[in-house]
Known about the structure:
The complex is a heterodimer of chains A (322) and B (298).
Chain A: H1 3-21, H2 24-47, H3 57-74, H4 79-101, H5 106-126, H6 128-131, E1 137-138, H7 154-177, H8 180-190, H9 192-197, H10 202-228, E2 230-231, H11 238-251, H12 257-276, H13 281-295, H14 301-314
Antiparallel strand pairs in A: 1-2
Helix pairs in contact in A: 1-7, 2-7, 2-10, 2-11, 2-12, 3-4, 3-10, 4-10, 7-10, 8-10, 11-12, 11-13
Chain B: H1 2-32, H2 39-60, H3 67-91, H4 99-121, H5 130-134, E1 137-140, E2 143-146, H6 147-169, H7 171-181, H8 183-188, H9 193-215, H10 225-240, H11 245-265, H12 270-284
Helix pairs in contact in B: 1-6, 1-9, 1-10, 1-11, 2-3, 2-4, 2-9, 2-10, 3-9, 6-7, 7-9, 10-11, 10-12, 11-12
Amino acid sequence: MKPRTALSLVAAAAFGLAPLALPGWVMFLLTLALAKSVVVLAIALLLRGGLVSFGHGMFFAAGAYTVGLVMKWFGLQEALILTALGVLVSAGVAALLGLIIARYRGIFFAMLNMAISMVVYALLLKLYWVTGGTDGIGIRTPTILGMTPDRQNLRLVMYYFTLVLTLPAFYAVDRFWNSPLGFMLRAVRDNEVRVEYMGSSVARVIYASYIVSGALGGLSGILTGFSVGHIVPELAYWTTSGEFVFVAVLGGAASIPGPLVGSIAFEFLKSYASKYAAYTWQMTLGIAMLLIILFMPTGLWTIYDLLTRQVRSWRPSSKPAR
Amino acid sequence: MTVPIVILLDGVLYAAVLFLVSAGLTLVYGVMRILNIAHGSLYALGAYAGTFLVVVYLRTGGPAPFMYLALLVGALLAGAISGPLVERLLLRPIYAREEVVQLLVTYSLFLILEDVMKLIWGVNPYYVAGPYAFLGTVSIAGVRYAWYQLLLILVALGTGILVSLAIRGTRLGRMMIAVTADREISAAMGINVGRVCTLAFTAGAVLAALGGALVGPLIAVAPGISVEAIVLAFAVVVIGGLGSLEGAALGALIVGIARAAAVQLFPEVELATVYLIMVAVLLFRPRGLFGEWEVRRI
């Protein structure tokens, strides 16, 4: 077994056994962190192609509102069907927007995402007879495979539900990055022209990645909606998207565990910090992001890389120190 | 019959403010090739500084007409202090970096400035109607309109003409054009590119702050106006073509009137209308109306 696989299995087992050791409020934060790590992953996926989206809140909201509205209108309760529907809708939204957005890079890509997410926000806010406006929509406890979780175990059940959908998402993105399409995306960041010379279509690579990214953003919104139990237009607001980008940069976009580590660190930090720094939260994020971009370009994961390099250098088989 | 007139007048008014903000955005982009996401924050900074100075001035009990001076001084201070500071400290180190890095840096600045303004001026909205009420109103084709609003349109028009004359007619303006066209060759010809960049960025910041300060008395100055400004200004420069001043003017008119029409007719979809127009323009002219057609890099 490769060390990578072993490490992933150990991590998965640790997440699986976590509820045995941790108190309820920690489990709730962990559920949120897991749910949000998926949208961070979606942003990291695009960052690999040199694309940054300041508007992934819209996919987050698309997934969550699909679940909320379908529940409200049709009384559908089954979590798996709702999740599938929400992912489909957000992938559809990405496929539609991607027709235009995938033609652009850099500034245009970033700003179009941000701008359209603000349009989505405005619509969610103002079409109150559909979306409930600022009040949002309450999400009732869903049934999972036809079973209704009872009240005492609800938190635990939602944790496992989130975990069971989050880990495969990470696995899928790992596979995506190691697929021909994933390598193409990385090549786009390095040199677009050469990708075209090799006979691949840059626009098609970006379009496909954008749809995958949108679907992941939707999944994340759905999971968050289920565990919070309430959805509001702020899900699509620019500060929400900004936090996602921040976490992607914090965790380091170049690695698979980065978004997960970043997301967990961020969720705990936020639950403490927002109590003391309601007016300076945004500023703290901005300053931290600046420092990370300028001095630690691969994020928190840098620390891990440095450590493994240290460990390797201790091994007798490695090259002797110069 | 009054609705079309209201749409036209309001539209031109929105356009005037939008033009000031997007002219700054497009100027900075032209010279530095950086789209400053924090540009909306400079607009908000101008709005806060301007209205704040008016409040302070009115409290001293000086003669009322000078409050317009206070408004302008606020805008100038906000732009002239924040501009060089941001350019020197934040943007200069990242000119040679990847575009993603530049985007993330200006975005971080956007996040930071949002809270800086909350810390200085609090979260409660500022209503400063003094400059607006002082001039009284006029009736245009049966619609009551404030003189201040007409004045604002004139000031924007004058500023636009002044800026385009300054860019084409003065030595410094021509240096900016040279740097826009080719940074390296300009440097080789002996132009101090760094100084031109600082000046261009400061000019852009002053324009944004001026837009904010002028519109301050007409709106509630509160957190959230910066994102509104950048989102609309972005639509304007994209419609007009990034880097083009004429484009910004035309784009501002289109967006302004579209927004006024949407506000009057379908207020729910105000922002969506603006973006639908932008998408329509992009479908037919991907570089905007006045944008240069770049040779496709394969």
